[in-house]
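Before the break, one more example. Copy the sequence into your notebook; we will annotate it together after we see the structure.
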Amino acid sequence: MPKIPTPRMRLLAAAVLAAAVSLPAAAQTNIEKLKQMKVATTDLNIPVVPQTGKNADAIKENLKRIKMPPGGVRISVCEAVG
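Here is what the structure looks like once it is written out:
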């Protein structure tokens, strides 16, 4: 005589089946979104902000106190605005 599955097993089986059925639809949606991507037209000529002044100098002094591992690794101010 076959064993009757418990309600918990039925619920688990239903969840697995629902997930398996919905995956291809989600994948197709993602593919459609990717097909709609366009090349950005934003102007990339961003003006350079001088890294000088009281705030930038204070950051540079703090960076001097940071121990960096040997091997050419260095740290510097990338952008301080304001």
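The radius of gyration is 29 Å. The mean pLDDT is 80. Try to locate both features in your own notes.
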